Amino acid sequence: MTATTREQFLAAAEHLFAEKGFYGASIATIARELGLTKQALLHHFGNKEKLYGEVLRSLSERLAANNSEIRENSPDPAEQLEEMLLAQFRGQMAHQDSARLIMRELLDNEQRADRAGNWYLKDYLEELVSTVQSVNRKFSRAQALAVVYQLLGAAHYFAVSQPTLDNIFGKRQMADTRQCFEAQLRQLIRAALA
Q1: Which among 140, 98, 141, 95 has a CA at the least distance from the CA of 120?
Q2: Is 62 a domain residue?
Q3: Distances from the Cα of 108 to the Cα of 14, 103, 153, 171, angstroms
Q4: Predicted pLDDT of residue 34
């Protein structure tokens, strides 16, 4: 399987997992979406859990690549954190499937959590926590994680709410609101680090 074919498989699987959740997206549905047989998809990934893990790994790698680029461009931890969180927000706004997948992973994972072998987003979260602690050395690890989770929570909630908010308030108003939200998220990040 070429890298491009693998990326297409993972993109289609990400969309279906984001739309239907882990339990709602069957291997047969994912295979059909890709124009494959169930057996062919299983040949490439083994089982649904492994495919889901690869989707999460791909998402985690994209987040890590963004963070790495931001770290290279700025030596200031406060600026790095602000840009990391804003980059994630912008990415989620541009790629709703990623935002919904992260939310589903948090909400739908209860049954699998006890036997999860890998937490693909953990390294990303750890990097944000350590960056918060670099900015404010008075923060304990628990305080830094609370800050990260509050900020990510605000960005995630807004991102996953877009289809509904567009229908409630209209696309034009929501376009203006998105710009205001990003500015307020920036202020929230700065205030949380003070």
Answers
A1: 98
A2: yes
A3: 15, 8, 16, 29
A4: 82
Task: Let me know if residue 12 belongs to a domain.
Answer: no
Q: What's the domain range around 145?
A: 53-193
The answer to whether residue 41 scores a pLDDT higher than 90 is no
User: How many domains is the chain built from?
Assistant: 1
pLDDT at 106 over 80: no
**Separation CA 156–CA 162 (nearest Å):** 10
Domain of 84, CATH number, reads 1.10.357.10
Please indicate, yes or no, if residue 35 is contained in any of the structural domains: no
Give the pLDDT score at 3.
62
d(CA 145, CA 110): 20
pLDDT, tens digit, 9 for 90 and up, residues 137-167: 999 999 999 999 999 999 999 999 999 999 9
